[in-house]
Write a structure and sequence with these properties.
114 residues; alpha/beta; four-stranded mixed β-sheet; 3 helices; 4 strands; 16% strand
Length: 114
């Protein structure tokens, strides 16, 4: 599930790469609270991809969950470059289960906390 703070194009790119991906807007959750978006993602068994660093708070969003990916990239990067870096970060995780995992995609690295 791609949060509304990331472009819909990311969901399209993920689908093209073979992932099942939805954007928050496409499921009618635009403008809904983080708790509602999180609940939907978990009910669907979907990993949540977001730039909202609040989702990285393990006290607020503890396991069990289907996985959370927090993107921490500079706003100065173009959307194209940001999408490329997100795709590259996700490619590093290919084949790995993300359940109960917090992933941080940053410039030059991908941090994984299980």
């Amino acid at each position: 599930m791609v949060d509304e703070n990331l472009p819909r194009e990311l969901a399209v790119q993920l689908q093209a790469a073979g992932y099942v991906a939805e954007h928050v807007i496409d499921v009618g959750l635009r403008g809904h609270s983080d708790a509602e978006v999180y609940a939907y993602a978990q009910a669907e068994g979907a990993t949540l991809i977001t730039i909202d660093t609040g989702f990285g708070n393990l006290l607020q969003y503890p396991p069990p969950h289907a996985g959370i990916v927090v993107v921490r990239l500079p706003d100065a990067l173009s959307i194209t470059r940001r999408l490329e870096m997100i795709a590259n970060g996700l490619a590093v995780l290919a084949g790995q289960p993300l359940e109960n995992t917090l992933v941080m995609i940053e410039v030059g690295r991908v941090r994984v906390r299980r």
